[in-house]
Amino acid sequence: MNIFKKTILTVLASLLVIGNVYADKIKIGTEGAYPPWNSKDASGNLIGFEVELAKELCAIMKHECTIVEQDWDGMIPALLMRKFDAIMAGMSITAERQKTITFSQGYADEVASLAVMKGSSLEGMDTPEGINLSLGGSDVKKALKGVDVEWINDFTAQAFATTSLGDDDVIIINKGIVEPEKLRLVIGPGTGLGVCGLIMSPSGWLPIAGEGGHSDFAPNTSLEFEILTLLTKKFGHVAVERILSGPGIMNLYEALCHINGKEMIHQSPADITASAVNGDNDPLADETVQMFCKIFGSVAGSMALTVGALGGVYITSDLVRNFLDIFVASDFQKSFENKGRLKPVLEDIPVYLSKKKNMGLIGTVYQTNNQWIQKGFKI
Description:
13 strands, 36% helix, globular
Protein backbone atom coordinates (compact mmCIF):
# COMPACT_ATOMS: atom_id res chain seq x y z
CA MET A 1 0.00 0.00 0.00
CA ASN A 2 1.39 3.38 -1.00
CA ILE A 3 0.40 6.53 0.81
CA PHE A 4 1.50 9.72 -0.87
CA LYS A 5 2.90 12.24 1.52
CA LYS A 6 2.36 15.46 -0.38
CA THR A 7 5.69 17.07 0.35
CA ILE A 8 6.46 19.75 -2.19
CA LEU A 9 10.18 20.03 -2.72
CA THR A 10 11.05 23.59 -3.56
CA VAL A 11 13.74 26.03 -4.43
CA LEU A 12 14.08 28.57 -1.64
CA ALA A 13 15.45 32.05 -2.05
CA SER A 14 16.20 34.81 0.39
CA LEU A 15 14.39 37.30 -1.86
CA LEU A 16 12.06 35.88 -4.54
CA VAL A 17 13.00 32.91 -6.73
CA ILE A 18 16.14 30.91 -7.28
CA GLY A 19 19.04 33.22 -6.70
CA ASN A 20 19.14 36.87 -7.55
CA VAL A 21 18.69 37.13 -11.29
CA TYR A 22 20.80 40.27 -11.24
CA ALA A 23 23.81 38.54 -9.71
CA ASP A 24 26.68 37.31 -11.86
CA LYS A 25 27.23 34.26 -9.69
CA ILE A 26 24.65 32.28 -7.78
CA LYS A 27 25.38 30.04 -4.80
CA ILE A 28 22.98 27.21 -4.07
CA GLY A 29 23.02 25.30 -0.78
CA THR A 30 22.23 21.59 -0.46
CA GLU A 31 22.72 19.01 2.28
CA GLY A 32 24.46 16.23 0.39
CA ALA A 33 22.89 13.62 2.67
CA TYR A 34 19.40 12.93 1.35
CA PRO A 35 19.61 10.52 -1.60
CA PRO A 36 18.39 10.40 -4.27
CA TRP A 37 17.63 14.11 -4.03
CA ASN A 38 21.12 15.13 -2.91
CA SER A 39 24.14 13.14 -1.74
CA LYS A 40 27.87 12.68 -2.33
CA ASP A 41 29.79 10.20 -4.44
CA ALA A 42 32.85 8.22 -3.32
CA SER A 43 35.07 11.21 -4.08
CA GLY A 44 32.98 13.58 -1.98
CA ASN A 45 31.38 15.38 -4.94
CA LEU A 46 27.80 16.56 -4.60
CA ILE A 47 25.40 14.53 -6.76
CA GLY A 48 21.69 13.79 -7.03
CA PHE A 49 18.51 14.95 -8.71
CA GLU A 50 18.56 18.40 -7.11
CA VAL A 51 22.20 18.96 -8.01
CA GLU A 52 21.47 18.12 -11.64
CA LEU A 53 18.32 20.24 -11.63
CA ALA A 54 20.19 23.19 -10.15
CA LYS A 55 22.82 22.98 -12.88
CA GLU A 56 20.11 22.81 -15.55
CA LEU A 57 18.28 25.84 -14.13
CA CYS A 58 21.51 27.82 -14.05
CA ALA A 59 22.23 26.88 -17.65
CA ILE A 60 18.77 28.05 -18.71
CA MET A 61 19.27 31.35 -16.84
CA LYS A 62 22.79 31.64 -18.30
CA HIS A 63 24.31 32.28 -14.90
CA GLU A 64 27.36 30.80 -13.26
CA CYS A 65 26.33 28.72 -10.24
CA THR A 66 28.21 27.15 -7.37
CA ILE A 67 26.61 24.39 -5.29
CA VAL A 68 27.80 24.31 -1.68
CA GLU A 69 27.29 21.76 1.08
CA GLN A 70 25.47 22.78 4.24
CA ASP A 71 24.30 20.71 7.20
CA TRP A 72 20.51 20.57 7.60
CA ASP A 73 20.18 22.34 10.96
CA GLY A 74 22.12 25.34 9.66
CA MET A 75 20.44 25.47 6.24
CA ILE A 76 17.94 28.28 6.79
CA PRO A 77 20.23 30.34 9.08
CA ALA A 78 22.97 30.14 6.43
CA LEU A 79 20.52 31.36 3.77
CA LEU A 80 19.46 34.28 5.95
CA MET A 81 23.11 35.20 6.50
CA ARG A 82 23.67 35.21 2.71
CA LYS A 83 26.09 32.31 2.76
CA PHE A 84 24.27 31.29 -0.41
CA ASP A 85 21.38 32.63 -2.50
CA ALA A 86 19.03 29.65 -2.61
CA ILE A 87 18.41 26.20 -1.17
CA MET A 88 17.70 22.99 -3.05
CA ALA A 89 17.67 20.34 -0.37
CA GLY A 90 14.39 18.43 -0.28
CA MET A 91 12.76 21.03 1.94
CA SER A 92 8.97 21.13 2.11
CA ILE A 93 6.80 24.21 2.49
CA THR A 94 5.55 24.83 6.03
CA ALA A 95 3.85 27.82 7.62
CA GLU A 96 6.67 28.11 10.16
CA ARG A 97 9.35 28.30 7.46
CA GLN A 98 7.33 30.82 5.48
CA LYS A 99 7.73 33.25 8.36
CA THR A 100 11.42 33.69 7.53
CA ILE A 101 12.01 32.52 3.94
CA THR A 102 10.27 32.68 0.58
CA PHE A 103 9.45 29.60 -1.48
CA SER A 104 9.43 29.26 -5.22
CA GLN A 105 6.99 27.09 -7.13
CA GLY A 106 7.37 23.45 -6.12
CA TYR A 107 9.32 21.15 -8.40
CA ALA A 108 8.52 17.67 -7.06
CA ASP A 109 6.16 15.58 -4.95
CA GLU A 110 7.89 13.16 -2.59
CA VAL A 111 6.23 9.76 -2.36
CA ALA A 112 6.31 7.90 0.95
CA SER A 113 5.14 4.38 1.74
CA LEU A 114 3.56 3.12 4.94
CA ALA A 115 4.50 -0.33 6.24
CA VAL A 116 1.91 -2.12 8.38
CA MET A 117 1.79 -5.37 10.34
CA LYS A 118 0.65 -8.45 8.45
CA GLY A 119 -3.05 -8.92 9.00
CA SER A 120 -3.63 -5.24 9.72
CA SER A 121 -6.91 -3.71 8.55
CA LEU A 122 -4.77 -1.34 6.50
CA GLU A 123 -3.20 -4.17 4.49
CA GLY A 124 -4.13 -3.97 0.82
CA MET A 125 -6.06 -0.75 1.25
CA ASP A 126 -6.14 1.32 -1.92
CA THR A 127 -5.60 5.05 -1.49
CA PRO A 128 -6.19 6.55 -4.93
CA GLU A 129 -5.60 10.09 -3.73
CA GLY A 130 -2.58 11.48 -1.93
CA ILE A 131 -2.78 11.76 1.84
CA ASN A 132 -1.11 14.68 3.56
CA LEU A 133 0.15 13.12 6.78
CA SER A 134 0.90 16.54 8.24
CA LEU A 135 -2.79 17.53 8.37
CA GLY A 136 -3.52 15.61 11.55
CA GLY A 137 -5.72 12.79 12.81
CA SER A 138 -9.21 13.67 11.54
CA ASP A 139 -8.17 14.32 7.94
CA VAL A 140 -5.99 11.25 7.72
CA LYS A 141 -8.62 9.10 9.41
CA LYS A 142 -11.15 10.27 6.83
CA ALA A 143 -8.75 9.50 3.99
CA LEU A 144 -8.16 6.03 5.44
CA LYS A 145 -11.90 5.40 5.53
CA GLY A 146 -12.40 5.51 9.28
CA VAL A 147 -9.39 3.46 10.34
CA ASP A 148 -8.27 4.42 13.85
CA VAL A 149 -5.11 6.53 13.69
CA GLU A 150 -2.91 7.26 16.69
CA TRP A 151 -0.53 10.22 16.61
CA ILE A 152 2.47 10.69 18.84
CA ASN A 153 4.59 13.80 19.13
CA ASP A 154 8.22 13.19 18.24
CA PHE A 155 9.52 14.38 21.60
CA THR A 156 6.79 12.58 23.53
CA ALA A 157 8.13 9.45 21.84
CA GLN A 158 11.61 10.29 23.08
CA ALA A 159 10.21 10.72 26.58
CA PHE A 160 8.70 7.21 26.44
CA ALA A 161 12.08 5.89 25.30
CA THR A 162 13.71 7.00 28.57
CA THR A 163 11.74 4.26 30.36
CA SER A 164 13.82 1.68 28.48
CA LEU A 165 17.20 3.11 29.47
CA GLY A 166 19.52 0.96 31.55
CA ASP A 167 22.61 1.93 33.52
CA ASP A 168 24.84 1.42 30.47
CA ASP A 169 22.63 3.65 28.33
CA VAL A 170 23.16 6.88 30.27
CA ILE A 171 25.87 9.20 31.49
CA ILE A 172 25.18 10.35 35.04
CA ILE A 173 25.52 14.14 35.22
CA ASN A 174 24.25 14.24 38.80
CA LYS A 175 23.64 11.13 40.91
CA GLY A 176 21.05 12.71 43.18
CA ILE A 177 18.45 10.67 45.05
CA VAL A 178 16.56 8.27 42.79
CA GLU A 179 12.75 8.25 43.12
CA PRO A 180 11.89 6.21 39.99
CA GLU A 181 8.09 6.48 40.16
CA LYS A 182 8.02 10.27 40.65
CA LEU A 183 7.54 12.66 37.75
CA ARG A 184 10.52 12.93 35.44
CA LEU A 185 11.43 15.74 33.06
CA VAL A 186 12.69 14.86 29.59
CA ILE A 187 14.40 17.70 27.76
CA GLY A 188 16.53 17.92 24.64
CA PRO A 189 17.81 20.55 22.22
CA GLY A 190 17.59 19.63 18.53
CA THR A 191 15.95 21.60 15.75
CA GLY A 192 14.07 23.22 18.64
CA LEU A 193 13.93 22.55 22.39
CA GLY A 194 11.81 19.52 23.25
CA VAL A 195 10.28 19.33 26.72
CA CYS A 196 7.99 16.63 28.12
CA GLY A 197 7.00 15.39 31.55
CA LEU A 198 6.47 11.70 32.29
CA ILE A 199 4.68 10.26 35.31
CA MET A 200 3.67 6.74 36.34
CA SER A 201 -0.07 5.99 36.34
CA PRO A 202 -2.06 2.77 36.96
CA SER A 203 -2.05 2.12 33.19
CA GLY A 204 1.65 2.85 32.71
CA TRP A 205 3.75 5.89 31.97
CA LEU A 206 1.69 8.98 31.17
CA PRO A 207 3.26 11.80 29.10
CA ILE A 208 2.68 15.44 29.99
CA ALA A 209 3.39 17.16 26.71
CA GLY A 210 4.01 20.87 26.44
CA GLU A 211 5.77 23.63 24.54
CA GLY A 212 8.41 24.55 27.08
CA GLY A 213 10.84 25.44 24.31
CA HIS A 214 8.74 28.53 23.60
CA SER A 215 9.00 29.94 27.12
CA ASP A 216 10.88 33.22 27.54
CA PHE A 217 14.65 33.34 27.68
CA ALA A 218 15.59 34.81 31.07
CA PRO A 219 19.16 36.19 31.14
CA ASN A 220 21.22 35.99 34.32
CA THR A 221 24.35 37.98 33.41
CA SER A 222 25.12 41.28 31.71
CA LEU A 223 26.44 39.39 28.67
CA GLU A 224 23.25 37.35 28.45
CA PHE A 225 21.26 40.60 28.61
CA GLU A 226 23.27 41.91 25.64
CA ILE A 227 22.52 38.71 23.74
CA LEU A 228 18.82 39.02 24.58
CA THR A 229 18.80 42.60 23.27
CA LEU A 230 20.34 41.54 19.95
CA LEU A 231 18.01 38.55 19.53
CA THR A 232 14.97 40.67 20.43
CA LYS A 233 15.83 43.03 17.56
CA LYS A 234 16.07 40.03 15.25
CA PHE A 235 13.09 37.93 16.40
CA GLY A 236 10.85 40.07 18.60
CA HIS A 237 9.98 37.40 21.15
CA VAL A 238 13.03 35.40 22.25
CA ALA A 239 12.06 31.89 23.31
CA VAL A 240 14.64 29.68 24.98
CA GLU A 241 14.84 27.51 21.85
CA ARG A 242 16.23 30.54 19.98
CA ILE A 243 19.39 29.61 21.91
CA LEU A 244 18.92 25.99 22.99
CA SER A 245 18.76 24.31 19.58
CA GLY A 246 20.90 23.77 16.51
CA PRO A 247 19.80 27.09 14.97
CA GLY A 248 20.14 28.57 18.47
CA ILE A 249 23.86 27.78 18.55
CA MET A 250 24.11 29.78 15.33
CA ASN A 251 22.18 32.68 16.91
CA LEU A 252 24.37 32.60 19.98
CA TYR A 253 27.59 32.55 17.97
CA GLU A 254 26.42 35.39 15.73
CA ALA A 255 25.53 37.50 18.77
CA LEU A 256 28.89 36.88 20.46
CA CYS A 257 30.74 37.78 17.25
CA HIS A 258 28.73 41.02 17.01
CA ILE A 259 29.36 41.93 20.65
CA ASN A 260 33.10 41.27 20.28
CA GLY A 261 33.37 43.02 16.91
CA LYS A 262 34.63 39.87 15.18
CA GLU A 263 33.86 38.36 11.80
CA MET A 264 32.00 35.06 11.84
CA ILE A 265 34.41 32.28 10.94
CA HIS A 266 31.79 29.52 10.98
CA GLN A 267 28.47 29.40 9.14
CA SER A 268 26.72 26.39 10.68
CA PRO A 269 26.06 24.88 14.12
CA ALA A 270 28.05 21.78 13.12
CA ASP A 271 31.08 23.91 12.23
CA ILE A 272 30.86 25.80 15.53
CA THR A 273 30.62 22.71 17.72
CA ALA A 274 33.33 20.92 15.70
CA SER A 275 35.64 23.90 16.19
CA ALA A 276 35.06 23.80 19.94
CA VAL A 277 35.64 20.04 20.09
CA ASN A 278 38.76 20.10 17.91
CA GLY A 279 40.28 23.23 19.44
CA ASP A 280 40.48 25.06 16.11
CA ASN A 281 41.59 28.34 17.67
CA ASP A 282 38.25 30.15 17.55
CA PRO A 283 37.65 31.43 21.10
CA LEU A 284 34.13 32.55 20.22
CA ALA A 285 33.16 29.05 19.09
CA ASP A 286 34.44 27.78 22.45
CA GLU A 287 32.53 30.50 24.31
CA THR A 288 29.38 29.74 22.33
CA VAL A 289 29.34 26.07 23.33
CA GLN A 290 30.21 26.82 26.96
CA MET A 291 27.47 29.46 27.19
CA PHE A 292 25.02 27.08 25.53
CA CYS A 293 25.71 24.49 28.26
CA LYS A 294 25.38 27.10 31.02
CA ILE A 295 22.08 28.48 29.73
CA PHE A 296 20.81 24.93 29.15
CA GLY A 297 21.53 24.14 32.80
CA SER A 298 19.66 27.21 33.99
CA VAL A 299 16.62 26.46 31.82
CA ALA A 300 16.55 22.76 32.76
CA GLY A 301 16.78 23.66 36.46
CA SER A 302 13.87 26.10 36.19
CA MET A 303 11.73 23.55 34.38
CA ALA A 304 12.62 20.84 36.90
CA LEU A 305 11.37 23.11 39.69
CA THR A 306 8.24 24.00 37.70
CA VAL A 307 7.10 20.40 37.27
CA GLY A 308 8.67 18.96 40.44
CA ALA A 309 10.91 16.51 38.57
CA LEU A 310 11.87 14.38 41.58
CA GLY A 311 11.99 11.34 39.27
CA GLY A 312 14.98 12.84 37.52
CA VAL A 313 15.89 14.91 34.50
CA TYR A 314 16.67 12.99 31.30
CA ILE A 315 18.53 14.73 28.49
CA THR A 316 18.06 13.21 25.05
CA SER A 317 19.86 15.14 22.33
CA ASP A 318 21.97 14.19 19.33
CA LEU A 319 23.12 17.81 19.29
CA VAL A 320 24.62 17.62 22.79
CA ARG A 321 26.30 14.31 21.98
CA ASN A 322 28.27 16.16 19.28
CA PHE A 323 30.24 17.88 22.06
CA LEU A 324 29.72 15.32 24.80
CA ASP A 325 33.03 15.74 26.66
CA ILE A 326 32.64 19.52 26.72
CA PHE A 327 29.10 19.19 28.03
CA VAL A 328 30.00 16.77 30.82
CA ALA A 329 32.83 19.08 32.00
CA SER A 330 30.78 22.29 31.57
CA ASP A 331 28.89 24.48 34.05
CA PHE A 332 25.60 22.79 33.15
CA GLN A 333 25.07 21.20 36.57
CA LYS A 334 26.31 24.26 38.47
CA SER A 335 23.86 26.41 36.54
CA PHE A 336 21.12 23.79 36.99
CA GLU A 337 21.48 24.01 40.78
CA ASN A 338 21.94 27.80 40.98
CA LYS A 339 18.42 28.58 42.21
CA GLY A 340 19.06 30.29 45.54
CA ARG A 341 17.12 28.83 48.44
CA LEU A 342 16.02 25.81 46.39
CA LYS A 343 19.53 24.72 45.51
CA PRO A 344 19.32 21.72 47.94
CA VAL A 345 16.22 20.46 46.09
CA LEU A 346 18.01 20.54 42.75
CA GLU A 347 21.12 18.93 44.19
CA ASP A 348 18.96 15.88 44.99
CA ILE A 349 17.45 15.56 41.49
CA PRO A 350 19.26 12.96 39.35
CA VAL A 351 20.31 14.17 35.90
CA TYR A 352 21.01 11.67 33.12
CA LEU A 353 22.19 12.07 29.54
CA SER A 354 21.02 9.35 27.16
CA LYS A 355 23.73 7.74 25.04
CA LYS A 356 21.16 5.96 22.85
CA LYS A 357 20.35 7.07 19.33
CA ASN A 358 16.93 6.78 17.62
CA MET A 359 15.11 7.60 20.84
CA GLY A 360 12.02 8.74 18.94
CA LEU A 361 11.73 5.40 17.16
CA ILE A 362 12.32 3.45 20.38
CA GLY A 363 9.61 5.45 22.16
CA THR A 364 7.13 4.99 19.33
CA VAL A 365 7.60 1.22 19.46
CA TYR A 366 7.17 1.32 23.25
CA GLN A 367 3.90 3.24 23.03
CA THR A 368 2.56 1.07 20.19
CA ASN A 369 3.27 -2.10 22.16
CA ASN A 370 1.68 -0.58 25.25
CA GLN A 371 -1.52 0.23 23.35
CA TRP A 372 -1.71 -3.30 21.92
CA ILE A 373 -1.27 -4.79 25.42
CA GLN A 374 -4.08 -2.59 26.78
CA LYS A 375 -6.31 -3.93 24.00
CA GLY A 376 -5.63 -7.49 25.13
CA PHE A 377 -2.97 -8.54 22.64
CA LYS A 378 0.13 -10.45 23.70
CA ILE A 379 3.39 -8.88 22.51
